[in-house]
Amino acid sequence: MQDSVYIIQAPPFWLKTPPLALVYLSTWLKNNGCKTQTIDLNNQLFKELAAAPGDWLKLNTHMEKSLFEIVKNKYPYVLENFYQTIKDSKYLGFSLFKRNQNFTFRLAKDIRNKFPDKKIIFGGPQMLFFKESLLRDSFKVTGEGEIPFLEIIRGSDKKNYEFKELDNLDELCFCDFSSTGLNSYSRVIPLLSSRGCPHKCNFCSERLLYKKFRHHSPEYMFEQIKFLKSEHLINNFVFCDSLINYSRRWLETLCNLLIKHRLNINWEAQMRVEDKFPLGLARLIKQSGCYNLFVGLESGSDTTLKNLNKGFSAATASEFIATLKKAELHFEISLIFGHPGENNKSFKETLVFIKQNKTNIPKIAQANPFVDYLGTFPGEYFPNQQAKKRINLFLRMIKEERIPYTKSFINNLVY
Ligand code: B12
Ligand code: SF4
Fold it and tell me: CA-CA distance, 208 to 190, in Å (whole number)?
């Protein structure tokens, strides 16, 4: 048995499900003989502070920057308990996102002072933003964590890992939630059937987060769902993939397996707009238990869709949405405003598209300004002052048209 490892999710972070990185990494390390535990400090603190979910989830720089000091001054026992728990461990891994980076760095600095010998490893999507070492003698893992984490525990002193990706996802053991637990969350099991995305929309960070697109076989996913359902007696699943329809045959096989074996689960996922999407497949998706899809439409203008390299036209999107509606699927669409190149004409085309298709659109999930995520835009980017104004006009229009929307995901990304 190797020295013990703790993998930590600092706050603030999403609350609904256990952080999947902690689940994947702890499952992998345990199955490779490492004594591993996870600590969801985010969930613990949210409960300890009796915070309102809306306040905790709202993107708010001030809260993110001040949270560590608040905890240190008002709830010191939480940190003391935490230090007590980790005191005998050798490795501490932190999962880093934009929202929890301040808390994570403050905590890691205190740990370095208190326990100078501990090996500290940083990973997670926010690593893309750091070129330098983050803390004296720490390890930096950009991209997938499984292979680098294990190498570090096995004694490698390489300090900087980038995109060491698994070749065959089916070699991974089924997700083990025993360390994170599921009962203290909302009893929805997160799943991941793939890593990366085969498409290349030019605003999207997916190609920066993963180098190779890979997926599990549908048989593996079916067996994993069956196992998790019987293990935890939970029926609700959320696919955290960037998209669930990377292959029609794959999706059809999985749906058929779920139906044939009467698994009776409920599931939701993200989906890409596809040309000539078969009504039969949409019905199969519904029949297999899908209760919600999150569709990345982004725009209703052909010019903007082309600029975004979405790979479909407004007419295709209209047909796709009608197909989902015909299959009685519930879905929500997301939109981006203010992409460089969007002008009044293309903006208005999006408004017209939404109006014309409103009877087929159950809900607007998200409307946000274009964010140039580490140079995803292949040209010179200038912040578009129009974006906010356009989102407000769009909001006014969907209110007038009585199209439902998620209030907290409108214009919440730039903060
Ligand atoms: C699914 C998803 C969601 C779901 C979450 C569902 C759920 N049950 O958790 C929903 C839709 C709710 C969501 C919401 C948001 N999301 Co989101 N989401 C994703 C998505 C597509 C997948 C996340 C996931 O589960 N991945 C699977 C796990 C296993 O991967 P992972 O965490 O990256 O971990 C791997 C590696 O990073 C690494 N690793 C991670 N931690 C560690 C630690 C160590 C020590 C090591 C060695 C390695 C390591 O190893 C892991 C396994 O290989 C990602 C994009 C992506 N493809 O990653 C965006 C992403 C995480 N989301 C993002 C954002 C911005 C948001 C929102 C803030 C958007 C918004 N408009 O509000 C909200 C957050 C809500 C909130 N207020 O907190 C950003 C985060 C950017 C950042 N740098 O922090 C991402 C990266 C997308 C993007 N680039 O914009 N999201
Ligand atoms: S927007 Fe969706 S389809 Fe396009 S690259 Fe990103 S994840 Fe893939």
Answer: 22
CA of 48 to the centre of ligand 1 (A): 24
Give the closest ligand to the alpha carbon of residue 6: 1
Rounded-to-integer distance, Cα 130 and Cα 149, Å: 18
Pocket-forming residues, ligand 1, beta carbon under 6 Å:
7, 13-14, 16-17, 20-21, 24-25, 57, 59, 93-95, 97-99, 121, 123-126, 141, 144-146, 148-149, 190, 192, 205-206, 209, 238, 240, 242, 366, 373, 409, 412-413
- By the 10 Å C-beta count (0-12 exposed, 13-18 middle, 19+ buried), 218 is classed as buried
Q: Closest ligand 2 atom, CA of 198?
A: 8
Residue type, 122: F
d(CA 336, CA 250): 29
The listed CATH number (1.10.3210.10, 3.40.50.300, 3.40.50.280, 3.20.10.10) that belongs to domain 2-162: 3.40.50.280
Q: Provide the pLDDT confidence category of residue 152 given band limits of 50, 70 and 90.
A: very high
Q: List pLDDT tens digits, range 275-330.
A: 999 999 999 999 999 999 999 999 999 999 999 999 999 999 999 999 999 999 99
Distances (CA, A) of 405 to 60, 228, 363, 366: 21, 32, 5, 7
Smallest-distance ligand from the CA of 21: 1
H/E run at residue 189: strand 189-191
Domain boundaries defined on the chain: 2-162, 187-409
Per-residue model confidence as pLDDT tens digits over 331-344: 999 999 998 889 99
Rounded distance from Cα 211 to ligand 2 centre (Å): 14
Amino acid at 319: E
Strands 266-271 and 290-298: parallel
**DSSP-derived secondary structure letter, 310:** -
| Atom 60 of ligand 1, residue of closest alpha carbon | 125
Which ligand is the nearest neighbour of the Cα of 194?
Answer: 1
Amino acid identity at 47: K
> By alpha-carbon position, which residue is closest to atom 7 of ligand 2?
242
Polymer length of the chain: 415
Distance CA 7, CA 18 (A): 12
Token look-up 């985010």 returns: 42
**Fold adopted by 187-409:** TIM Barrel (3.20.20)
Q: Quote the DSSP letter at residue 51.
A: -
